[in-house]
Design goal:
This protein has 386 residues and is α/β, with parallel strands linked by helices. It contains eleven helices and 16 strands. Strands 1-2-4-3-5-16-6-15 form an eight-stranded mixed β-sheet, sandwiched between helices. Strands 10-12-8-13 form a four-stranded antiparallel β-sheet. Helix 2 packs parallel to helix 3.
């Protein structure tokens, strides 16, 4: 039976899996229920090997094709974790856990890869080995790196690796991709600006860290406007300002700034970090205060490999008839770590006209499931043809 027809038959079942995962969101590495569900399904499908606890709570399934003379091993990755957001969709299968929500569609990613795994176990119409990877802690925990550090690629002999993410704004069932840098490096910072506190009516007796913070925030924008090449991408966002005092008549002793720096080029990343520290420290010194800077290099730039990108774009065209050129994305994606270990590519599948991801009203569209499942199955069968 053609994959398209089989996924039409499986659609309701996959929706049921997806909605169950959606109703029981789990954060970071605490995906114990979801991981157990995935393990149970993979064993029931008849995977040749199912391994849990890879990268703490990751799950890996191995599916050997009808033939295995090619020696090819292709990895397929889906993320499983949710976000610390209180759901506001009002759905009958909405999160049963206050403050946790599948607001990025990882429930859909997991369900689609499970659907593909079931089909691949049934048909095995390929020459090689498909390795399905279910990863925890994409949302800030670097679960991809933890799985790689746990020997994922070498242990299972993975030669190439592929990922997919739903994307609101792209028509349902359509795809988009780009070669080279795709998702940004996501560095994070904390800056403690220290001055001398005092009475708000006597500012001359203080070294005001509130004014210091204001000057620093504005000066940091010169990294993009005056330090980086205008043709390069860099975003510096201060997202939190916390004073050591909340009183209306007290100039505080210190202010804590938090935020993120996003870049798409290693040289610009180095420039941004160097200029960030210098601006914070010298602005504080100029006002008689001091700055303590903690700058954390988080996810690297996610870079699609050209040959693999061209291949999966062609797979997407076979599935949906077209594959658009995706824009650069300044959000981060820890699949970058897997693409540093092995060649591969990451594609977007349309979620239609829905709220954007990380929004309390977002919901993964079940109508995207057939396209996503078909893409996974077609990828395996075309990459490792019998």
């Amino acid at each position: 039976m053609p994959a398209k027809n089989r996924f039409a038959e499986l659609h309701d079942e996959i929706i049921e899996w997806r909605r169950d995962i959606h109703a029981h969101p789990e954060l970071m590495f605490d995906t114990h229920r979801t991981s157990a569900l995935v393990e149970e399904k993979l064993r029931a499908f008849g995977c040749d090997e199912v391994v849990g606890g890879v990268g703490r709570t990751g799950v890996v399934g191995v599916i050997v094709g009808r033939e295995n003379g090619s020696g090819k091993v292709v990895g397929l990755r889906a993320d499983m974790d949710a976000l610390p957001i209180h759901e506001a969709t009002g759905l009958d299968y909405a999160s049963k856990t206050p403050g946790k929500m599948h607001a990025c569609g990882h429930d859909g990613h997991t369900a689609m890869l499970l659907g593909a795994a079931k089909y691949l176990c049934e048909t095995r119409n390929f020459d090689g080995t498909a390795v399905v990877i279910f990863q925890p802690a994409e949302e800030g925990g670097g679960g991809a790196k933890v799985m790689c550090d746990d020997g994922l690629m070498d242990r299972f002999g993975i030669q190439e690796v592929y990922g997919m993410h739903n994307w609101p704004g792209i028509p349902l069932g359509q795809f988009a991709i780009r070669p080279g840098p795709f998702f940004a490096a996501t560095d994070m910072f904390e800056v403690t600006l220290s001055g001398r506190g005092g009475h708000a009516a006597k500012p001359q007796e203080t070294i005001d860290p509130i004014v210091m913070a204001s000057q620093t925030i504005m000066a940091l924008q010169t990294i993009a406007s005056r330090n980086a090449d205008p043709t390069e991408q860099v975003v510096v966002s201060v997202t939190s300002i916390e004073s050591s005092s909340t009183a209306f008549n007290v100039i505080p002793q210190s202010v804590l700034l938090k935020g993120t720096v996003r870049t798409l080029d290693p040289a610009i990343r180095d420039l941004a970090e160097a200029r960030f520290a210098a601006i914070c420290q010298h602005t504080a010194q100029a006002m008689g205060g001091a700055a303590e800077v903690i700058y954390d290099r988080n996810y690297p730039v996610m870079v699609n490999h050209p040959a693999q990108t061209e291949f999966v774009a062609d797979v997407a065209r076979r599935v949906s008839g077209d594959c658009a050129d995706a824009p650069l994305v300044m959000g981060g994606e820890d699949f970058a770590y897997m693409l540093e270990e092995r060649p591969g590519a990451y594609i977007l599948v349309g979620n239609g006209d829905t709220a954007m991801v990380h929004n309390p009203e977002y919901n993964f569209s079940d109508d995207a499931i057939p396209a996503g499942c078909n893409w996974w199955a077609e990828l395996v069968e075309q990459r490792m043809p019998v």
